[in-house]
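hey so i finally got around to running the thing on that chain from the lab meeting. sorry it took forever, my laptop kept dying and i had to restart like 3 times. anyway pasting the input first so we r on the same page abt which one it is
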Amino acid sequence: MESVSDVLIFKGSEPFTLGVELELQLIDRISLDLTPRSPDIFQALGGESKRIKAEIFQSMLEINTDICRNAHDVRSDLAKSITHLRKVCDPLGIELASAGTHPFADYADREPYPAKRYTELINRTQWIARRLIIFGLHVHIGMRNGEHAIQINNALLHALPVLLALSASSPFWNGEDTALASSRITFFEAIPTGGHPCRVKSWEDFLTLYTKLLKSGAIGSHKDLWWDARPSPGFGTLEIRICDSPATLEEIVAITAFLHALAIDLDEQISRGKTFTSPPDWVMRENKWRASRWGVDSELVISDDGDKEPMTSIVDKMLTQIEPTTLRLGYQNEMDLIQRLVRDGPSYKRQRAIAAKNGGSMLAVTDLLIREFETGFPQWLEIGQTTATDSPLQNSPGVSDQLT
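ok and heres what got predicted. didnt touch it at all, straight out
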């Protein structure tokens, strides 16, 4: 078990450097089901590495970047790892895909990876952990120290539902339409130390809370804090964990760039004297739910009095606010893609559109995910029909999810 002294010192890192962790699906080329082949992949690779690692089940793995200065570096780094991994997977008959859930795989059929930490997790949480055949994008942002991490964390809490909606890619579970944009994020709510983060005002407050969790046996290390955002003392980062695995490399890069610019802009506002308070618990929970349910079509609560605003309007305002930063970082193309995701649909809409076009076929959805990850860019298609939405902003049925 980790001791409190292991996290008393936040190592710190160069501010606003980036690191990305992406959980990928391993798919059998013939059946298009998930396949427990990560041991075969690691055998072909000569073992796990810093860049390609095992995950809780054998039908998934994680790829990590090195420390990157910006989202452009993230693109280059991930592309190299994906290319390397694809060369190993191709002769094994394994396809790769990136989405919060596989469209039809049965979680009960999954084989855990034989590692002590995963065994302990499953033993403790049982059926809850057995359902964690879900896939996420984790973005690390370099922080000066622990206090800095808590400052930026609290300021970013308002943006977490937007990040979830933009990345939402898990509408299907066990072959059924969940009616959610992100079903993945709901699974973490069942874990005692999962879900939206406990709110703290300072690094000292975080350490006090951490000490209590460790002493009580609620966690064995900071890795057991399955929060949507958490400090990572060993890396010297703030880790944003709320996102589903986006379906394509360009979406991954665009969302990372959006988050990167937002964090830098918030830091600059703080340096000018602005203070940010985290949202009330009920607002955090409600907005997370709305983003997971309706995605980019949701209305978010913007005040403790219950005032609401469409997410489309909120994203427009955020893009305007961070425009000087995105221009400075050369993120214009990435922000154009963010706008298009809001307009034409993140992965959850594209998955539903292709299912509607193919009589509800989950094989067609899985094939789309494979093709999108291979090409690296969303495949907005003319589906030839409208698909229904029950967005709270659009009450009439049959509203078109036009994909162009």
